[in-house]
Amino acid sequence: MHTLLLVKNGGVLLHITKVFWYAVTICIGIVLLGTLAPDYLNEFTASATNFISNQFGWFYTLVIVALISFCIYMMFSRFGNIKLGKDDDEPDFSLPAWFAMLFSAGMGIGLMFFTTAETISHAFINSPNAEPGSEQAILESLQYTSLHWGFHGWGLYAVVALIFAYFKFRVGAPGLISATLEPLFGKKMMRGTVGQVVDTLAIFATVVGVASTLGFGSAQINSGLTFLFNAPNAFWFQLIILVVATLIFIASAWSGIGNGIKYLSSINLWLALILLLALFIVGPTMYITNMFVTTIGNYISNFIQMSFDLKPVNEAQRDWVNDWTIFYWSWWISWAPFVGMFIARVSKGRTIRQFIIGVLIAPTLVTFIFFAVFGGAALNLEQHGIAKLSSMATETVTFGMYEHYPIGMILSFLTIVVIAIFFITSADSATFVLGMFSTGGQLNPSNVVKIVWGLILSAIAAIVMYSGGLDGFQNMLIIAALPFSIILILMVLSFYKTIKRNE
Amino acid sequence: MKLVNVRKGQFVYYQNKLHKVYSVKAFFKQSIHLIRLENFKQQLSTAKEIDFYKPKHLDSFVYNQKRYTLNKDTKAKVGDYILVINPKPDSMDHHHLNAIEIVSSVERNGVISNLSNGIRHNEYWVMVPGLEDGATIIDLQDPNAEMAEELESQLAETDLPETYTARIGDVYQKNGSDPILQAMVVSIQGQNVYLGGNLKVEMDILTNNEKWTYMLNMMD
């Protein structure tokens, strides 16, 4: 009775909805399970992932392809000229400022983590088609990273952002996933339990997506510190990193130094660009440039075949698809509510055509360049037998690569700083978006709500790291994305129904 | 002021009048770009020529031809103008120091502005229309500076704000008319404007954007 009262009063005071309690309960359940029975959690997620990847791999693939096709259709259809906003709304941001924001949406911990490791893996450890280490494998490595990080992911984000922006700015609905489904299922259902379940699933997907990224980040910070200062590379050390980072961003949420985080975030984008430029100059400049251009060609000519390829005949190759492609599709799906919200927010007043072109091109370009530079620099080393990066742990590859280039120490140090700042800024924005989703779409969620989400994100990151390591995150992502992928399809149907009726 | 102390959004005096810094371009000679609050006129200046002013509770100033008084105790309602005095933007917000925005809805912890920023209640003061009791007028840095006044009046003659008057041949459409009512100005006698179709409308009403919309001029 007391708890019920507390819950009720807390709810009124903090203005949270039932969704908050559902989602928090699920998350705490996972954390408890991971603490009490880490092996069980790991086994369960591993077998569930195996099942989902094998049975629903085709489904993820089709969903992603369908969404990107929908994007292209919207761009060329008669709806292309519709404004995301009222007819006389002008864009809040100038075109260059908008592009810069989209660019920055494309950057994050993932780029620092996977640009080298994934490329090296495709080329020298486990290749999608060719013999690892062969010429074809090296060439195809960047082609496949482009597949994973290119139009597919951004097409998905573009669709989700488009739906958010349309419903928020043109229809005037609150910023909730359930609100975008109202035209399909009606107000009564979406403002009741079903709607709450939908929002809870969105929150759950977001929590897992962001927590995984934080996990990758802390693993990489750890390995960087080990490389530079011989710090111990162990779970307890990563836990310390997680705790310190959590304390920093909770302190920022509590004191409300929103401006500080803003400065940090823009400084970090510059740092990341400086890092990119420096590596491009000290690295194999011409090799990188040639790889970049060749990859674009390969990517375009193999786009359709790669998009659908599930490798049904060869089991080993099918495992590759499960480990990489399906993993990425689910990672992007779980990030979609979060990134979509951001892109939607800055895109008011743009037409649908402008919007899709911008969202597809700007961030994709920035990721391709990052992959060409970091991946190219790593490939070059291993191809010429200078370093055996493929024998290193995933989170260490970047630092192992720097070692062989001039000013490598500085680059390593800069990378750690960049990841640490990305860590804090993405955790900060994630807590805000989660706060928004769990307070009925309010743009001013209270600090307590944000801090609860911050703690949960870190706790989940810690627990998954403890029970399953980096594979654990991969498994959690694939599980969390499945229910949300169904919601995604419904969102598109609901959006199409509305836009056809209204315009 | 020194250039290092100038920030976007600050209220400053330039040529004795209240302005807001909208951009600082450190590499330009005229590095400070200002907007004059009373009439939104753009001014380019240098850091030396401006003086910082921090707006206080019950300060009153003219913003876009209308007078407002800052009040930190007033609760914001939908449609109110607010001045952001203590910006702490969340990751999805883009408001900055002294941003002037309009409240489009009110939440428990804050308001949502017309630019979709979530602004907490402790981040802004309401700009109450009109001159409140006990308010300080801050439009001029030195209200007694006659020189400046004189200069201003001279300027004013050459620099009248463009008022909008109807001309012969203008076609206007009456807002919200059903069926659509469009008519051309055929004669103007002082304040009375005669439109085709035997319509007589006063100049003020015809040039009021909310009542009539200017379409085109036949003679152009």
**Uncertain regions spanning at least 5 consecutive residues of chain A:** 1-12
H and E string of chain B: EEEEEEEEEEEEEHEEEEHE
| pLDDT averaged residue by residue of chain A | 89
Give the quaternary arrangement of the chains. heterodimer
Gyration radius of chain A, rounded: 22 Å
Total domain count of chain B: 3
Describe the structure.
The complex is a heterodimer of chains A (503) and B (220). With 503 residues, chain A is mainly alpha-helical. In chain A, 81% of the residues lie in helices and 0% in strands. Chain A contains 20 helices and no strands. The termini of chain A are far apart. In chain B, a hairpin with a 7-residue loop joins strand 2 and strand 3. Chain B has three domains: 11-53; 59-129; 170-217, no CATH class. In chain B, the strands form three sheets. In chain B, strands 11-10-9-8-12-7-6-13 form an eight-stranded mixed beta sheet, with no helix packed on it. In chain B, strands 4-3-2-1-5 form a five-stranded antiparallel beta sheet, with no helix packed on it. The model of chain B has no long low-confidence stretch (mean pLDDT 86). Chain B contains two helices and 18 strands. Chains A and B meet through helix 13, helix 16 and helix 19 of A and strand 10 and strand 11 of B.
Give a quick precis of the structure.
By secondary structure, chain A is mainly alpha-helical. In chain A, 81% of the residues lie in helices and 0% in strands.
Task: Give the SSE layout.
The complex is a heterodimer of chains A (503) and B (220).
Chain A: H1 2-14, H2 18-36, H3 38-76, H4 95-105, H5 109-125, H6 135-149, H7 151-171, H8 177-180, H9 182-185, H10 187-190, H11 193-229, H12 235-255, H13 258-282, H14 285-301, H15 303-308, H16 315-345, H17 352-383, H18 397-402, H19 408-437, H20 447-502
Helix pairs in contact in A: 2-3, 2-11, 2-20, 3-7, 3-16, 3-17, 3-20, 4-17, 5-6, 5-17, 6-7, 6-14, 6-17, 7-16, 7-17, 7-20, 11-12, 11-16, 11-19, 11-20, 12-19, 12-20, 13-19, 14-17, 16-20, 19-20
Chain B: E1 11-14, E2 17-24, E3 32-36, E4 42-45, E5 51-53, E6 59-63, E7 66-71, E8 81-84, E9 100-106, E10 110-113, E11 118-120, E12 124-129, E13 136-137, H1 146-158, E14 170-174, E15 182-189, E16 192-195, E17 199-202, H2 203-206, E18 212-217
Parallel strand pairs in B: 6-13
Antiparallel strand pairs in B: 1-2, 1-5, 2-3, 3-4, 6-7, 7-12, 8-9, 8-12, 9-10, 10-11, 14-15, 14-18, 15-16, 16-17
